Amino acid sequence: MATAKRSSRQRGVYKRGDTWCIRFSHNGKIHREAIGTYDQAVKAYHARKLQIANGTLEKQYGVQGARKQAPTFNEFADRFLVEYCDAPGNKPSLKRFYVNSLVSLRKRFGPMRLDQISTWHVRKFKSERAKEKHWFTGNPLSPKTINRELAALRRMLNVAKQWEVINANPCDGVPLFTEMQSKAEFLYPAECRALIDAAEDYFKPIPIVALHTGMRKEEILGLTWDQVDFDRNIIRLDEGKTVKTTPEYVPMSGTVVETLSSMPRASKFVFQRRNGVGRLRDVRKPLMAALEGSGIAEQRKRLGKPPLRFHDLRHTTASLMVISGQPLEAAQAMLRHKDIKTTQRYAHLSPGYMRNAAALLEQFISTDTITDTCPQNGHEQGIVTQPKTPYNAERFG
What is the distance between the alpha carbons of residues 308 and 285, in angstroms, rounded to a whole number? Predict the structure, then answer.
């Protein structure tokens, strides 16, 4: 018996493995069906085309022929939190981010069906949120806050598109607000020592590790003893701000090794609560107490500086590394930045940064030679020597 060829002259009929299949378009969507033999596939293809022409495909196909009515935003949000955020490999912080963002998103889009949300609705949400004030501080919402909500909405609707709930994402035509990069607050060495001295005994190891390693708060509070390698003096990080596909390693200084070695191992987590029972999860109160006890909080308030956050200890690590003369690449490696551009925000702290700039400016002002490197006809112009003119104050009145 002759075997049918893989290709076919009949449009919409093709072979996959040992089975002939059909492919046709309906309502802007491509449908595929596995049929059987070549002759059966040809007949099925013409039958589907006839059903499309007669408008009877919906009755036979149901969901495949005609898309179900899109769910409301609230209904999809509930499904998204379970099927997307709780999927294996996602961190709990991911779900917290979407839960927080959904507070305002549900108010605007909750009862609307997803296919009813248009670009106009998203733009309106963006403009209205820009006029609102924070429920606690009473200050206008920052562009960063609104952008995070728009990012959450964009991602949710992209997932809805991937799950074939909607055909297009209305957020695609809505740009985000421009965010001004905030100034990196940091402590000087004397302030670091004062902070550690003022910290309670159970909390003291945390700022020590934070300042000496540049680790993030989540990485420190979630640190377990099996991640600490005293033989090689390194800390292995499997999780942190983002889900890591490969482990990251943080070197431990002698101070960190001595601090961690002297701590009790009451549980698998390195840092415990004040009573020594249970994992420490919140550092706001002990950090604030240490800042107030050291006088740092009062001094910053007097100078008009914002309150110091725990993440500013990470800024302190990078800042002090650069101030001490270490290259930006070293700070990038210590903080584990993927992009050097993230580390360049500390470049102005380098002792040679402004000194070199001032030296180059002095050389340019004092020289009587100007090099014009503007391209002309594909070549650089040569050096143009201008005679040095004595300074005459009378010429300038």
Answer: 12
> Which whole number is the average pLDDT over 164-168?
89
Are 105 and 251 members of one domain? Answer: no
Q: How confident is the model at residue 17 (pLDDT cuts 50, 70, 90)?
A: confident
Q: How far apart are CA 92 and CA 195, in angstroms?
A: 31
Residue 315 in contact with residue 185, Cβ under 8 Å?
yes
Is 368 within 8 Å of 343 (Cβ atoms)? no
Round to the nearest angstrom and report the end-to-end CA distance of the chain.
107
Per the CB < 8 A criterion, the answer to whether 156 and 77 are in contact is yes
Residue 218 burial class via C-beta count within 10 angstroms: exposed 0-12, middle 13-18, buried 19 and up: middle
Give the long-range contacts of residues 19-22, CB within 8 A, separation 24 or more: 22/48
The torsion angles phi and psi of 353, rounded to 5 degrees, stand at -65, -60
Whose structure tokens read 């004092």? 366
C-alpha dist (Å) from residue 348 to 25, 42, 100, 363: 59, 71, 35, 21
Rg of the chain over Cα atoms, rounded to whole angstroms, equals 32
Whether residue 229 lies inside any domain: the answer is yes
| 8 has a pLDDT exceeding 70 | no
Whether 5 has a pLDDT exceeding 50, the answer reads no
Asked if residue 66 belongs to a domain, the reply is no
Res 157: pLDDT = 96
Confidence (pTM): 0.61
The answer to whether residues 95 and 233 belong to one domain is no
